[in-house]
Protein: Response regulator
Amino acid sequence: MIRVLIAEDQSLVLGALAALLKLEHDLDVVGQARNGQEALALCEQLQPDIVLTDIEMPLMTGLELAAVLAERGAAARVIIVTTFARSGYLRRAMAAGVRGYLLKDAPSESLAAAIRSVHAGGRAIAPELALESWSGGEDPLSERERQVLRLAGEGRTGADIAKQLSLSEGTVRNYLSEAISKLNAGNRVEAFRLAREAGWL
Structure:
């Protein structure tokens, strides 16, 4: 049996994915998480073969989860299942060691096939995304600029961001200014929108 952990913050989607995979004779859904941090804790506890995760989740994104699992040398292989067909996301996913990247509107049988393929050591990338990744621009943001811009886009103040990331408010302003400049944006709101649309957040 292939042991699968699902991380998805939308309860309906989480339940649907679990129900779908439980119909497969060789797949065992061993755990379900509603955010990246919960998924990370369950990975340590349950040791799944496959982690099926969304990208945008509270506390820790699916891409951040994949990166931490890779850093820790976890045996679990990660497959992203998302609504976002953005080349920036795919490139970041590949850099984080993700083995599969599928869209949520893909046929249900392709999900089970992707899990089996990745478990066997292969990759599973939605064809339309593979093509898209060659045409997208390079991500200009540093990891710290990305963190600061994401929090600013969520409406956090400079003081809030500084406290959360253990930085000074001046450093936060500098990171925001750099991100705005790199994206040729007029302000932090526009920078957040541009980066999000490109898949860089």
Q: What stands out?
A: The CA atoms of residues 124 and 197 lie 23 Å apart.
